[in-house]
Amino acid sequence: MRSVDVDKVRPEGREGGALRILILSLLLLLAARTGIAQASTNAETEPSGNVERRPLVHLTLQDAVTRAMRHNRHVELASLDVTQAEAKRKIAQSSYYPHIKNESTALYVTALQGVVVPAGALSQSGVAGLVPSQTLVIGQGSQKTYTSGTGLVQPITQLFKVHAGVQAANAEVEITKIDAADAANSVSLLTHKLYFEILTKQEELKAADAAIQSSVVANEESTNDIAEGKSLEIAGLETRASLLETRRQSLIARLAIDDLVLQLDDVVGLPLGTRLELDSASVGEGPIIPSEADAIAQIEAKNPKVLAAIQDVEKAKAALSAAKTAYIPDVTGVARYSYQSGIPFLVHNFGTFGGTISYDLFDGGTREGHLKAAKIQLQMAELQFAQTKADVSIQVSAVYDDIRKMQQLMSVVTANVAVREEQSRVAQRRFREDAGLASEVGRSRANLATARTSLLGTQLGLILLKDQVLTLLAECAN
Fold first, then answer.
1. CA angle centred on 297, ends 293 and 298, rounded to 5°
2. Would you tell me how many other CB atoms lie within 10 Å of the CB of residue 80?
3. CA dist 478 → 26, 70, 100, 278 (Å)
4. pLDDT grade, residue 231 (50/70/90)?
5. pTM of the predicted model, to two decimals?
């Protein structure tokens, strides 16, 4: 806002300018009062009415994490992925065993060939006469035939390919288990993050309310000074603008809290709109983390992303083995026991034993293409493993750098709180001695509330960074 230098106003326009300033001041004052009334109505009347209709749940940090592990949909989906992968592994393992199958048929033959024996074909002696005495037609089988056979098929050379498939299925199961653990760690970290953000925003709301109280006192003092001629109207407008700004910050904090509570409700599996009463005492001092060197050393053994990359390599190796088995002929053992009725020249019950050999003499380069693709996939998996290990190591180092910066910030914020506490104490003493104004006491309290909010936010940020380290080390689930 630009200041007006009264001395530089031309003499002939001094009275008209003063009148315009007075009219403008009255209009701004009316707008300010209207804005304050509307802000008060929106911040206090409407939200409180909605809030009263919503249930209230007391939730500690540990309760929130426990509920998230039980009810979060991402964790449940990851668990279902593990179950699905185990079912696929069982299907792959079933190919190790022989397959027993029964085949039965019932047929009706419209015409039979038969065997024709002419008269006298066996004997034409004078004593016995013609044998047979007339032409005979001997039917072959029956027009109604029934067959039923139970056979056993045992893959032999195909077991190499089956073994490779089982290895790939085992790797897939391990990947889904690692992903499930990583999902649980991520949900736990998100729960911590939202819990801390809500606590911080609540403290910001308290600081904003303290600032509103201070602005109200300053506004009353400014109004009195204007009435007594000790201050200009423009100073009163500035005070009211400051009051409106603090109310705006309070409204923003309330809206942010509502949004964060909705997110936390969804993460922990509570009905949306459930009000949460959080417990800052349940946060604790934060976890104990290893040194940076130890953390980086433990990555290969505990980090989910690295473990998943290792299983991707194993899966690619299994795919390469499967591609090589395509050059091996398929040898299969066969055993079958059958029953028949109506088929000529076969006994009713009989068995068959043997084997089959199958080999593609020419496939247009399909096997060679699969083998080449499998080799490339293995190279890509190995490179991805090396890159993942490097990325996680860099990420751990970055988090430790942030922890060191946050620890340095903690000392500064703690010192600021001590200064603000002393400032508030001095302001209260001056007010009791009639050497200071009530607005000074309000401002000092508001500044102290802001400093304490900053301290809490720094403390929670430091704990969250330590939780990130544990998540990277995959120790959160322990």
1. 120
2. 12
3. 66, 16, 46, 24
4. low
5. 0.65
